[in-house]
Amino acid sequence: MATVAREIEFELPALTGEMVDQLIAAIPSLRIDGEDVRELLAASSQANVATALDMFAHNIPVDQVDAPAAAAHYARRLAQRDVPVEALLRAYRLGEALFVQWWLRTIERHQPTPRLLIEATRYVTAVASTYIDQVSEALVRIYDEERTLWVQRAAASRAAQVRTVLLEEDLDVDAAEALTGHRMRGVHTGLVVWAATGEQPRGVEAAAEAIGEAAGRAPLAVLADGRTMWAWVSADTAAEAALDAATLRDRLGRLDCAARAAVGNPAEGLAGFRRTHWDALSAHRVAAIRGAGAPPVIEFAEVAVSAFLARDPRAARFWVAGVLGDLAGDDHAMAELRLTVLSYLRAGSSLTDAATRLHLHKNTVRYRLRKAEDVMGRPVSERRPDVEVALRACEHLGRAVLRRPGS
What we know:
Helices cover 66% and strands 8% of the residues. The protein is an alpha+beta fold.
């Protein structure tokens, strides 16, 4: 076996070229532009074959052999080029088969007895197979680690570019498009997507696919942090860029990460790209203050006024208490009365329409309105705009603006 190893080693440069040609011909994913990548494949192939030959020539146990440095570097480069790891593993399987063919061809020159040929074949295939398994396992770990780091670096770079576009208002459209690779002309709808506490970041990233399914087009998406993603759906018209909340809720609901989304108003151009993002951030703030009671998809258009109040929850709580009095109490009875009053005001002060919305009898609505007016100490029609805004704030912001017991 040592003699055969030394004979193959003598032919190593030519055999390496043969292996590289066969691997590139058999595996399209390895046909990467750039002479340096082909040279890395050649270096990796030669290092693996040389390591295997050293094991046979010097009887080195397989478990004492590490993956060659050139092979590890090649695995990292494939990870950076987004070449599937399956292509790397297939290359090792094909390389193993080719190596065994070389070995048998070289053994044949010595005209061994059938018994010796069988023993040699068993030995070389067992050692080669064990080596390939061991090295492949190590390279998959190296590949996965590099792929994770590469994706994180690329994501961080993309996020930094997007932040520059958001913050540098002197940046023009052409420069913004060059930075992000995203079309800034047209209409944009911004989103903030976040996962429940404790979920993995990759779950938030999966939400980008859900947004694409809901919008019918791939969004621009960047990770703002480990649990939060910013995204934009862009199109030529507002209708095309708009997102249906029910569809988005359905798509996000299919994810394992319990993703939630805040959606900004569609807006046009580079200024609109920024404005719809600030809208989505404001809606996100409302959802964060509301907590578990917030809907899975919250639209800025529905909570705009509450979003402004959410910038100072303490001041908002004092103002709400001044408008609603004891009706702002944090208990079930007051919550029921607030819902009735708000439905009544939204229905244009129609008892019939309010009763239909609430699935109640009209007399029940009338009774609750009187009860609410007693609690407030004045008619609900007095300071009506303030009353409606205060009721919406209670609905959107929850306990953050409700009166605590004894306050």
